Amino acid sequence: KKMKKTFNESCYEILRKVPKGKVTTYKAIAEKLKSKAYRQVGRAMNKNPYSFFNNGDVPCHRVVGSNGNLVGFAHGLKKKTEMLNGEGIEVKKGKVDLKKYGFNL
After folding, report:
1. Whether the Cβ atoms of residue 100 and residue 94 lie closer than 8 Å to each other
2. 88, 73, 98, 55: CA torsion to nearest 10
3. How many CA atoms lie within 13 A of 58 on its CB side?
4. Residue in 60, 70, 84, 89 annotated catalytic
5. Active site residue 11
6. Rounded-to-integer distance, Cα 35 and Cα 33, Å
7. What is the pTM assigned to this prediction?
């Protein structure tokens, strides 16, 4: 019998699809899961065992607030900004232009 995926695992699976140079939002991930649990998505990102810091493949630094604001990152927003800049994503005043960098899940 196949084990049902946890909410967190489902979030990570979706986030793996967001390519370098693009971002998505907590809300978009929750909606993709037919949920309104935006904060739970945030908690899943915070607990990400597959983060780039652990040589993983789940780019939680590519998740921003639904208005493009950089919010919550376990390693700090300065680090999040550096990582996004390193992928060619411009962060202005703590915000990413979703029209330009948003990835449609």
Report:
1. no
2. 50
3. 18
4. 60
5. no
6. 5
7. 0.93
Do 24 and 15 meet the contact criterion of CB atoms below 8 Å apart?
Answer: yes
Cβ contact 98:23 at 8 Å: yes
The β-bridge relationship of strands 95-96 and 91-92 is: antiparallel
**What does the pLDDT look like over 43-96, one tens digit per residue?**
999 999 999 988 999 999 999 999 999 998 888 999 999 999 999 999 999 999
Residue tagged 């990582």 (tokens): 83
- The secondary structure of the chain as a DSSP string is -PPPPPHHHHHHHHHTTS-TT-BEEHHHHHHHTT---HHHHHHHHHT-TT-GGGT-S--GGGEE-TTSB----TT-HHHHHHHHHHTT--EETTEE-HHHHB---
